[in-house]
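dumping this here before i forget
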Amino acid sequence: MLKRTVTGVVSAALLICVMLVRGWVFDIAVVLATLFCCYEMQEAFLKASLHPARRTVYGMALLMLPLYLLMGTMGIYVLACAATLVIMLQIALREHPRWLDAVASLNVLISVPIPLFLLYPIIRIQPDILGATLAFSVFVIALFGDTFAYFVGVAIGAHPMAPEISPKKTWEGAAAGLVGSVLGAALYALVLDQSGVAISPFSPLGAAALGLLGGVAGQVGDLTASLIKRHCGIKDFGSIFPGHGGVMDRIDSMLFTLMVVCSYVLLIVERAA
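structure:
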């Protein structure tokens, strides 16, 4: 538990620093995180005798930032379409093409590069502090949700949620996780509003609603990662973080929460700007 706590605190501190610095430091950090997650997921699939289009996935991950700088948010659409076409063509032209290899490839693409790509337009919302505030809300929602789910699940969890893929996840923990996401988002909005340091992009009530939706998405992301690990016969995606596993183990729920926050930005924040 001590190792897990220390790792979590250090990771959070580094994350805050990267978001405050922004600029090329943030951009490169996102690219590195994307490559690490792609590597971990593809290595997991290899253990299950699946063979994703590895070089194509890495290539698309590396093209993520240049496409955004060149085309803006339209790069998301171009990246998704181009990557899907190239991957399907590559798998189809193999000597022994298998549909499951295509599924594994597209799963990596949809689960990692495309969601992380969404951080670029969010962090660049003006003024700078507003973009950083919105980006950090993703981690607040996911972190509070994961923390509440873990401790309540360990303490009173009795009804398994998905025993076939994750025996330790319980409905009690899931409910606590949603409460944690809602509470974390509302407190975050309240602190921003009271501090006067940053522009709050949402009211406490609006933040709570965002926390609920983001919390649900985060739990879907966590279950999805558990499904992949169960299928591949592994406990963790990696071991780079002591007590926490790999990069993918740390951000699996955040990736799905990110989709919800990005939708909020597109539908609410940018329209109000």
